[in-house]
Amino acid sequence: MSLSKVQLSEGQLEHHRIWKYVILALVGLFAAKFVQRLRFRSKYKLPGLEPGLPFVGNALQIPRGMKERLQYLSDLRDKHGEMFTLDIGGTRWIFLNSHRVVTDLLDKRAAIYSSRRPTPMSHLATRGRRLLMMPYGDLWRRERNVMHQILNQTQQQIFAPWQDLESKALLYNYLANSDEWYKAHAAFSGSVILAVVFGRRATPDDQDFRASLQATDEYLAMLGPGSSVADIFPFLTQMPYFAKLQPWRWHADELYERTAAEVNTVDASHEREADEGSIYKKEVEGVKELMRLGVQKPCFMTEFLESKADRAFTEEEVLFIAGTLLEAGTDTTRMSLNQIVAAATLWPEWAATTRKHLDRSDYLSAEDVEQLPYIKAVVKESFRWKPSIAEIGSPHSLTRDDEYEGYKFPAGSIFMSNAWLIANDPNEYDQPDRFWPERFLNEDIDKRLSGHVGFGAGRRVCVGYNVGTTNMHIAVARLLYCFDFVSTGQIDMSKPLSIDPEHPPCEVKVTVRSDAHRRLIERECRDAAFEAETGS
């Protein structure tokens, strides 16, 4: 036998040994996983556990497209009923498909169903400091408490002037450029929340505010299950070294630096200079400077600073408190107004009924609007009908093991209210596809959270729901008082309306109702719109 043949044989043996170890390791890994699963199933029982793939579970089965994803969830609801479970990267996501189970778990057992388990990317983008995804605990309670004290209905007089001014600008923008009515919605929703939080109005070329809206869209995209490879393999974000060599975290790290990091960085892609600071920091420092000069107008931040509430938080926590409020209200109001326009064309009878109530007044003040039950019902219906932002709600994390109707849930499970399916379920609402405000004309008309899950559920309900509801009351009343809406194309409501602020969500023609209404807008609203153009 030659030496070369002996060497070849030894090389082949070494190769076989390596493969043997690899196979043994894989067998051991699968065996450990199998034993772990047996132990889990002997201890816990989950509803409608959908079969998935090893290690990644159902993560690769969730469609990316909105319409396809909603159909996928609808099919699972039809298959499993009021609850079903998806395994995403080792985390169990339990979807709640009826008001009954949402109320039983997220409301009645809120003490243990109110935490958050942030997705890896959302945690990196905020370092765990954004209230929306913050775990239930002392910091969450302190931040929410101070927000609630300032944003509740007893403080309405602080925000009413801004809401009146911005709704007038909304009417004038409709009149001046009716073909771009959807952009008027974006301008109103953005400027009114900017005014409420920071006491200033947005101008058309307001780069700082546009940067904030862009950051919001980027952050929200990180919240969905399976939105990043790190959601499937969470250990990727725990690697301690060489962050710059971890491409899955680059976007989240950059977003954190851009929005609220205390250090200043250069970001040429967003036209930001190194000495300008982060988006939130610039807004907060601007309020402080105007307060020092004695010319700052009342807003959330003036109340927050004058009450010394900021002393209970770090500088970065203060920045995220402000930024969270700014971003939370912008898209919700804009999309709800888009819903109103679509509904007015698809179901014109309710719009006609609304105008009968509104036409009794020559001009609608904020006080007039709050005395109209039908407007309150219209706004409630807009929060229920075809939800476009949180179509699957926001995640609630269970803090300890719990049992419910024969099921046993492990701590750390994620619970989602399946808002779109609930809103479109005939077992939940009579004629769910119909925009029908009369469904809310009952004894709960003044309970702003009753009858829908538009603001979330349990202790995680949106802290700014009172301000957001009032914004909608005055905007909807004044729009329907002054304008007619007619569809110019087919409106597909089998999926949420597009959330792109630069393109119309549906094809609609807007016309002012009469010359008298035109003169009213020109007389009462021109100055408000002009001030917004100049930032005064």
Keywords:
536 residues; monooxygenase; four-stranded mixed β-sheet; metal-binding; iron ion binding; oxidoreductase; 2 domains; two-stranded antiparallel sheet; 19 helices
Structure description:
Heme binds at residue 462. GO terms for molecular function: heme binding; iron ion binding; monooxygenase activity; oxidoreductase activity, acting on paired donors, with incorporation or reduction of molecular oxygen. Its cofactor is heme. Belongs to the cytochrome P450 family. It holds the Pfam family p450. Helix content is 52%, strand content 6%. The chain has two domains: 1-43; 59-534, Cytochrome P450 (Cytochrome p450, Orthogonal Bundle), CATH 1.10.630. Residues 262-276 have low confidence and may be disordered. The protein has helices at 3-43, 66-80, 99-107, 120-126, 138-151, 156-176, 181-198, 207-220, 229-232, 250-259, 279-293, 300-306, 315-346, 348-358, 366-369, 373-384, 419-423, 465-482, 515-534; strands at 83-88, 91-96, 396-397, 402-404, 407-409, 414-417, 483-487, 508-512. A four-stranded mixed sheet has the order 1-2-6-3. Strands 4-5 form a two-stranded antiparallel ribbon. It has a two-stranded antiparallel sheet with strand order 7-8. Strand 4 (402-404) and strand 5 form a beta hairpin. The protein has 19 helices and eight strands. Helix 4 packs parallel to helix 10 (250-259), helix 7 runs antiparallel to helix 13 (315-346) and helix 13 (315-346) crosses helix 16. With 536 residues, the chain is α+β, with helices and mostly antiparallel strands.
